[in-house]
Every structure is written in structure tokens, then in C-alpha cells.
Amino acid sequence: MKHIVVLGDGMADKPLDALGGQTPLQKAHKPMMDWLAKHGEVGLLQTIPKGLEPGSDTANLSVLGYDPRLYYTGRSPLEAVSMGVSLEEEDITFRCNLVTLSEEEPYEQKRILDHSADEISTAEAEQLIKAIQQQFQTEFMKFYSGISYRHLLVWKGGPLDLQLTPPHDILEKRIQNYLPQGENAQILFEMMKKSYAILHHHPVNQRRIKQGLRPANSLWFWGEGKKPNLPSFEQKYHCKGSVISAVDLIKGIAISSGLHSVQVQGATGNIDTNYEGKAQAALQELKRGQDFVYIHIEAPDECGHRQEIDNKVKAIEYIDAQIVTPIKETLDKEGQPYRILILPDHPTPLSLRTHTDDPVPYVLYDSTLHQYDETLQYDEHTAKKTGIFHHQGHLFMNTFISQHCCKEGYLC
Question: For the whole prediction, is pTM greater than 0.90?
Fold first, then answer.
């Protein structure tokens, strides 16, 4: 029995007037997901434990079967693992976004216009982070260049109890009420403030402005944490597995839990990602003997943050046509028994442009079972209507994998 998870980051939403009172999941043409719903189980899953921030970090840990209340040590250390950065116990890490701020003065009066600086290219971002390194890097503070707007600061002996705000939560808002707070927070604030003077006039940003693109004109720190310590997924579930994602956070969770992280050429984390490449990579992993594949697609979440209604609908349709459909058709043709789970990690409502901790809809299909319900389709409304609700999301992986991955030598 093979197990496949297709996770559309931020795919769940709220009804929108622009979509005739429907959610993007209801609006999207997704014949394969709806077929799986009619022949499977549809319900709700609470991926974010009450009291925790609704992030992709806590939510994906939960979906993979790790209770975030026990295992979550911050977002940025997971990204550090993916980037190959070796962490010591005393290291505190910070996600370091390259953002676009408005031009008001003083700095505190600026507004966050874009948390991704128009999804700046990795090549451009590397040049900007190099300028930051030259200005701020010390024996105790080191900057690492990541993908697009996502970068890393490692602060040896740094503070862990700061109040930091994700930039995608405060789009269009003035930053004065969301600046770093707590012991030694002033150090981060001064770097953010000085970074504007460094980056605003940088040749990379001057070229971007001439091209009609937003400049990446400031650093923004958030997502602090310390070295993660996740139990092995294989030992926990008796499954050998792989993770396919373009995002350092998800790759970091994979590596930290002993799952194989697969690189796919053209996987961007945006709507232009290589959907077909991800599907083919998943099938290849299953063919080479993996029992479990976790396919993460960031595009719906980015569309939610950017309030791109049509693109969010399209992203769901691409996932259905270019990932779910070829995987199902190939496994059916091969006669391979399998289970497939489709879900978001959390909602990213277009109306809010940020995450919420509402339960997410899922569809679970088992190729060895024969059931049919014409009334079912895959969306938020149907999931709620079925009355199936798993309150502890981190326990659902047990339900999904069940005994199917047990092998000789394992006690199940």
C-alpha cells in the first residue's frame, strides 16, 4: 500500500462575493478531487492546536503527525536545516524577509506594501543579502541567503522571547505597532532601519524600479526559534518516505524527521511552479520503493497573501489536473493499491490575506475500498456538512497510514 499526501498550502478559504458567494475550492474546476470525494471520505481536520499561531510550520508538523505543542521550536530553525546551516544549542535563528516598505519618513511610519517584494528572484536577492552581510555580519550574527525573499539570520546567544510579527499578517499597515519588542529587540530594529538606507539605493532595486517591480528595500525579522529535535518519521510510522516542496520550511521538516527531500527543477513556490514535475517526482519516489510521499504546493497560500482571487482558483485547478490526476491514473494503471489524502495545512482567506486557525477540509481515498456518495465533493461546505471532524490533527496521520506500512521486523 502506497500513501500520498497532496497538500495545497492555504487552499481553504471563505465565500467571496467576487466568486458568487463561493470559495476558491467550490469555484475551481477540479474533477479528480471531486471524484475522489464521491468515492472516499470528506471531513474537517483541526491542524492548528488552540492557542498556537496559525502558520505553515505548526500546521505541516501537525499534518505529518507531530504535535506542535511538543515539537515546535520555531519556523526559522527548520528553514536553517533545509539550507544546510549547522546549528548549535545556543543559536537562535530568525526568518529574514526582504520586504517592500513605503517611502514615508521616519522609518516607523512606513507601511508594508509587499512581504515578498514582488517575489524577488533568488539571484537578485543574493546580491542584496551580500550587501547586508558586509554591513551587519559579525562573529555572533551571520546572514544566509535563501530562496526569493526568504532568508536567515543566526544569532549566537540571541534572545528567544521577542515579540515579532510575520510581515504577511500586516500588509498595507503602518509598521510602528509591529516592530520588534522585548530584550535586545532594539538590535534587530536598528538593523531593519539601517537596511532601508542600504537597500533602497542598491543597483538591484534601482533596476527593479525601472522595470516596474517593487524594490526589496528593507529587512524584516520574524519566526525566531532554536534547533529542532523531531523523532524519525520512519520509526514513528514504519514508513520510508519522501517530501517534495520548493519551500525551505517544508524541506527542513522533512530533513529533521528523516524523510528524503526531493529537489524538482522549476519548483518555485509560486503559481508558476512545476506541477507536472512534482507529480512525476512523486511517482518516481514510489517506484524506487518509498511507501509515503508528501507533495507540498505553496501557490494557493501565496495567492491568498497577495489577494489574487483568479490565481488562487487556477492554482487549485493546476493541482487537480497536473498533480492529483496523473498520480491517480498512473497508480490505477499499475494496479498499485494506494491511499491518497488531499488537504490544505491551514486556510489563507483572500479577504484577510493571512492565515487562520479554522479547521481544514480533507478528502481521503482508498483504492481498495468501494463506496460512492453522489452528494460529496471536495470543498469547505461539504466537509462541514458530513459531520466528520478530527479535533487533534496530529493524530490523523495514524488514521491515514494505519497498519498498511508495517513491514517485517516492525511491531505494529
Answer: no
